[in-house]
Amino acid sequence: MSDFRRAVRRPWAILVAVFAQFLVLPAITFVLTLLLDLRGSLALGLILVACCPPGNVSNILTHRAGGDVAMSVSMTSVGNVLAIFLMPVNVAFWGSLHPTGRDLLREIELSPLSMLAEILLVIGLPFVVGIYLSHRFPRFAGKARRVVGPVATLGLAAVIVVGVANNWAIFTAYIGLVVVAVFVHDALALLLGYAIGRAARLPEGSVKASTFEVGIRNAGLGLLLVFSFFDGLGGMALVAAWWGIWDIVAGLAVAAVWKRRTGVSPEVGAAVA
Question: What is the CB-side half-sphere exposure of residue 133 using CA atoms within 13 A?
Answer without folding.
Answer: 13
